[in-house]
What does this fold into?
Amino acid sequence: MADDSLLVEKVTISGATLASILQRFSSSPGDVDGLLFGHFIRLPPPDPNDDDPSSSYSAAVGSTTLAPFAASITGHFCSGAPMTFYDSVGRIDPHSVRRASDQDRLPILLGWFCGRRRTHLRPSMREIAVSNSLFETLTPASAIDPAPPRPCIFLLLSFSSTENQAIHTHEYRAFHLRRKPVGSGVLEPRSLHIVNIGPDFRGQYGSFSPDSALPWMPLRVEDELAQKETLRSLQDKVAGQLLLDSAADGFTMERLAHLIGPGVAEYASELEDLYRNMLLKLEGLARLVEKSSARVLEQENKNLKIRCRLAGLE
It folds into this structure.
């Protein structure tokens, strides 16, 4: 069981995950809530020659025997409605939480999120109760020794828009459940770092574990037994090829297998070809969307002419 004195000093989330949560929230008819999944990563100890020993990070390390953690959010589950895994007083339903976790096969449960419309970014009494109940009820399974902290992250979102829907405003704030020696815990605000792709975010890659959509490729073993194809291996190969086709057309699993292992330097052109096929795939999708939009516009113009004709305006 995790030590209650451990702290989560940093919270990171991928730009795609945050955009997905905001889109699901803004497109829902009302308030929503859901679960957050990802990884806990132990932060390195601070430099003993740090000029600012009174900083929050140094104070956190000094108050515990272990270094604080960083919570990396890589996935979420949202049902599109409020109070889907807890009751009106904030009691957690463990069966609903485990069913949502097993269904999506997501990594460690970090905490939960709540989206409210036109409200301040301050946790309510019910949200504090839900966070405490989630912390006390569920213990994530992990092979890490010592085990990572229990679910202790809370993400609060707010959405508002103008009357004509021309301007949409999204606000969000992360909190960490800090346990007290006596009584329930309190939600303390934490800075939320958004991890995107690009050189400006290279410094955050060391503490962020993204999920890749490409098929897993084991290292090739030069063995006669390894060359024999079984029914299971053929099924995995077909499934991997379908997954690869969704990202790049005309690139086979055999070519992808050459891009791992000690001889990868000899296949630099293969890697460039993979990127080229991915760009062609994206270009094809963009053209398909463009054609679909043109057809939709054409159909809307036809419908407008029909309505005008029926109304006697022509």
Summary: The CA atoms of residues 237 and 253 lie 7 Å apart. The chain has two domains: 8-207, 214-314. The helical segments are 15-26, 56-63, 94-104, 125-137, 224-227, 231-245, 253-257, 268-310. The radius of gyration is 25 Å.
